[in-house]
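Minutes, project check-in
Item: structure for the 336-residue chain
Input as provided by the requester:
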Amino acid sequence: MSSEKNWSLLGHEWAVEMLREHLRRDGLRHAYLFAGPPGVGRRSLALRFAQALNCTQPLAAGEPCLECRTCKQIEARRYPDLAIVQAEKEGGVLKVEQIREVQRSLMLAPYQGRYRVALFLRFHEANANAANALLKTLEEAPRQVILLLTADSPELLLPTIVSRCEVLRLRPLPIESVLAYLQGRGAEESQARLLAHLSGGRPGYALRLSQDTSAFEFRQMRLDDLQKLLASDRRARFAYAERLTDRKNEAKERFRETLLIWLAYWRDVMLRVARADSPLTNVDRMDEIESLAARLSLAEARRIVNDLENAVDRLEKNVNARLLAEVLLLDWPKGT
């Protein structure tokens, strides 16, 4: 399916078709949850759906024109009937006060469009009070209100919230699709191929890496650190954990980014140990990954991956970051 027939989006054709059918058949749900890894396109799909809900010049039923004043306002996130709610920064906390503020506006009739749309980005960052506050709205949503949520995974949300939403699980795209997307935006093939692999099939993240050299350099630095840590003693690892979680440097957010970079790397190691056919993410680090994989058992590689996955989850729950880093690094193999 071409992007023009897919709401001008890359991938997730099945999700677009499902939402289109809900519009065509007057089968709208009052709440939708777009779940998937960051950069996979969940926010883009949610905004396009908001355009389809309120477009004043639809090309056909369920087909936003993307050119009318309403579509352009939603694209720019300046539409009076669109409320966007999120934590102040990625890895932060979405608070109950933010939920209550938008709840007051949702009680009013739409100002300009057919529906008031509330988009709650990264809702897995909501604290318990915020989640419970939204639950009340989900249970008693006004007729002309559509609630849209995005999250890394439905399992990170309260089951009572998930059960009241139409859940769309968005998967990473094929590497070749992201490669073609980046080349279409002017990237050289070699660079586009590397970024497509690094993104793990997430076009939004690939585009961010292509436009933000600091993000790419940060990844390089953290992977260089990983190699140094493998050759370091306990004292050096303790010192690194202290620097990594220093509160003066927006530590939690950067620590989370570091964990995700390391997690993708160790998953590659595990795939090589297992001799899996799946494409690697860090293709520019192939020699390092092959060397490390040759010295580890599958059980060891899997344990490190599991530890990193658990660390990301525990960091979201506000555990002691420094202690978390120390335990994690001390369990890494040495001398490899």
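Outcome recorded: The mean pLDDT is 91.
No further action items on this chain.
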